[in-house]
Structures are given as C-alpha cells and as structure tokens.
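Recall that a protein's primary structure is simply its ordered list of amino acids. Everything else, from secondary elements to tertiary packing, is in principle encoded there. The following example makes that idea concrete.
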Amino acid sequence: MLISSQTTLSLRCPNCGGLGFYALSRFCLGIGGSVEMHCECGKSLITVYHKRKKYYCLQVECMMCDTKHVINYTGSELWNNNVMNIVCENSGVEIGFAGTRDAVVQSIRRIDRSIGEVIDNRGYDKFFLNPEVMYQVLDFLGGLSEEGLTSCTCGGEQLEMAVYPDRVELYCNNCDAVGVIFAETVKDLQWIHSMEKVQLETHVYHCLDDKRLRKKPSR
C-alpha cells in the first residue's frame, strides 16, 4: 500500500491576485509544529499547524472576504489522491484546492474554463479589472491549449498559468520562461484573438505582444 507523503496547496493571493502552488510534506510537521507559506509578493497565505497525532489545522487568508478561515483536516484527508476544495465560508466561493499537483492543476483549469459562470454567479467580478475581457482571454487560451498550440522553444509543451487582476502569465516549468498577456481592454482582446499559437522563448520573461514590457532574463 502506497501512502502519500506530499500534497499540493493552491490559493489565490488577496494582496496581488496571483495564483501559487505550494508543496506540503507530512514529514515537515512534527506534533505541535507549523509551516507558513507566502505569495511571491510577500503576503502570508496559509499557515498549517499539526495540532495532534492525526489532526491538522489550516489558517487561510481569503481573497473573497478579507478574513482568515480556520479549517481542520485529518492527515488522511490532506494526503491522498483526492482534491479538496478550500471554500470561503462567507461567500461559498472556491478560493483554493489541496491534493496531488496534477489534480489541483486540473481543478484550476476547470475553474478557468468556467470563469464566465463564476463571474456571473459567484462574485469573481471584483477580482478582475475587466471581468468580461478576462473571461474571453481565458477561454481563448484554453482553446489554444486543448489544440496543442501552446509550447516553449526549450521543447516544453505543457505551460502553466497564473491569473492576476489585469493579466495572465503563462510559464514553462522546464526552463522558467514566462509570457505575459494583458487582459484589461478591448484592444488586449483584439490582439489575443489575432494569435494563432503561444510559444514562449527559453529562459525569457516578456510580454507576448511586445508593447508594454521589454524582454528581460527570466526570473
């Protein structure tokens, strides 16, 4: 019997809006121990406490209601092959996921594909600067990905995505290349609809329309 020893937590930052992935090993938490996870902007997002033998407590910063949610899990709930939704207690909106990395990524993509419904029914409109444009950008990028038209010159074919209030960043885990796509205005939307594919450049961080950011070495 294989027992999972690592889980992936994914949460949107209430400070900058970025979406991060955080690996949590059950071996880094002794009884009474804790681990704190931060966004790249420096904001503390998740603190995990090992309360007693089988029980863990997650203290989560919520982007929807600007409060901290305290959620209790057993070890078997945190470390298994299932995906758990981290939900804002006040709004009912999914603000994050916990589970295997692949399963968490698929859940994020599901949310991105249905972002129009989320905007209409769950209040994500206050997250994006221009929800209508962002939804169409995400929908278009999802279509390119499904057709195999997103890649990197290093040979990487699977790109990951981070969504911010004003832009989408596509990045390659193979070489850390990053491509920025802005999603604020109708002109941004017109530009992205002119794209036939997305191809990042090895080890380069740049804006894909080459208008707002100059190319620079990848972070």
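The chain has five helices and 15 strands. Residues 114-217 form one domain.
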